[in-house]
Amino acid sequence: MVGLVLVVAGVLCLGLYQLYVSITTKKKLPDGAKPLPGPMNLPFIGRVHDVPGEGSWLKFHEWGQKYGPIYTMDMFGSTHIWISSESVATDLLARRSTIYSDRPVIPNLPDNRYSGNYLALAGRNDTWKRQRKLAHGLMSVSAAQDLHAYPTRERDRLLWLMATQPAEYREWIEQFTSRTVARLSWGSAAPADTLRVTTQGLLETISPAGALPNVVSFLAGLPRWASPWKRREAARHAVEEKLFTRCVASVREGMEGGGARPSFVQTFLSDRSPGGKYADVEVWDAMYTVGQMAIAGALTIGSPIQTFLLAMLHFPELPMVRAVVKEVLRWRPPVPTGIPHAVEKDDVYEGYFIPKGATIHALEWSITRDPVTYPDPEIFNPARWLEESYPTYRAPLTTYPNLANYSQFGFGRRTCQGVSIVEQDLFLTMGGLAWAMDITPKRRPDGSAVPVHWNDFTPLLIAKPAAFEFDVKIRKGRETVLRQMHEEAASGDDLEEQAFNGQATKEGMFAKEASGLSEVEGQYHDFEKGDAHMQHTQC
């Protein structure tokens, strides 16, 4: 009872302190500047009560239509600025990138800006610049190695599983993404299962709908014993660190034995001798840079593949695969609210004042629904990338549409470095699925079609379609080919996993009792079942 009283008192004190800070630090407008438009904020809470726990981007889009292409609103003392126009996003996040390339502090992950553990979420500092340069170098050098075979191998495995057990499609797609990035990062698919657990845990940690302190920011001040969110993240991070450590050790062991497969880590370790390209780079830096590259890939690639299946059920006549890939990302953006930026100093744009420290959101849901650029934006229409009658037609790019400079991958200095990997994975999987099988609405015994939702997506930062049902029929003459492709893709998997997991068990790397994996893994499976508990906390 005493503990509960202390927690309640602490929460009240933190709330009052937050209110005091928000009032005393409110900035005056510079001469000649005007405030951004936006909904009227209530004292202390701002407009947080209006933001739904699911589909929040729809509300932000609604406000954008009402208040214009850039507007502001507060949430518990934090200023958030929403951009609904690609031209405005380009003006600020790209052309003024010297002050708009920072990342905000994530209340539930307060070390995201400085620790070096979260490349995509890091602040604009020396650690981020160093790791970003390292990531670019590893991907550039590794592109010349035999890494392109990995996505193809995992695609072949995926096609057979999808063709024979389509009801488990979400599982097979998540396996494809995690296994592919594990091979690219460490040369083996063996770490994929643990990577999935820690990846899902991180997504919940950083999402407003995944952890209450990300909405009610003063809750981040609670001590660990009173914060289930801090305890959960500590358990997840322990698993992650042990996983990354073991993966680097496994690659090093393979190199010493002459059996290391090509990977980002293998590229790094091969050039660390005196005078080598990475001689001055710490192993820890590379370990976390590659690990976060793997997490980024595992998080983002699965969503558009699932959305592709959803689109096939509603729009079965699909033209060129490359145009389909691009339209999938536009129609249902994987990150509909965008990854937030932070502005580093006061600024004025088109006469409007933007205060230092504000969180800047390029709202992808709105950007991809601009009716001038994308006529009939809710219609899934790959032809908009192919035909001259559409504003998005760009010759000669339209001959073979690609994802270069696409708003989905960020702006300015925060543009995703792995666009080519994402494009390859999506092209291989979507093209392979269309080649291998017919995907049609599921039929009931009476012949009627089982309804398939149109826009029901999970509420986390990276949104995925809610589960839906469909039927699959392997195309004529392709079953034998698919079986052979699967057998070749699966060869050697057991030996890989035994070697990796056997050594890991021997070293106690993943002991659940020590790492807290059981807690994180249990919450992960709860989320997959839809029983997300805190992940669905209402704003």
Automatic annotation (TrEMBL):
Protein keywords: Heme, Iron, Metal-binding, Oxidoreductase
GO MF annotation, one: iron ion binding
Cofactor: heme
Membrane-traversing stretches: none
SUPFAM superfamilies the record matches: Cytochrome P450
One Pfam family of this chain: p450
InterPro entries in alphabetical order: Cyt_P450, Cyt_P450_E_grp-I, Cyt_P450_sf, Cytochrome_P450_fung
Annotated residues for binding of heme: C416
PANTHER family to which the protein is assigned, alphabetical: CYTOCHROME P450 2E1, P450, PUTATIVE (EUROFUNG)-RELATED-RELATED
Family to which the UniProt record says this protein belongs: Belongs to the cytochrome P450 family.
Listed name of the protein: Cytochrome P450 2C3
Lineage, broadest ranks: Eukaryota, Fungi, Dikarya, Ascomycota, Pezizomycotina
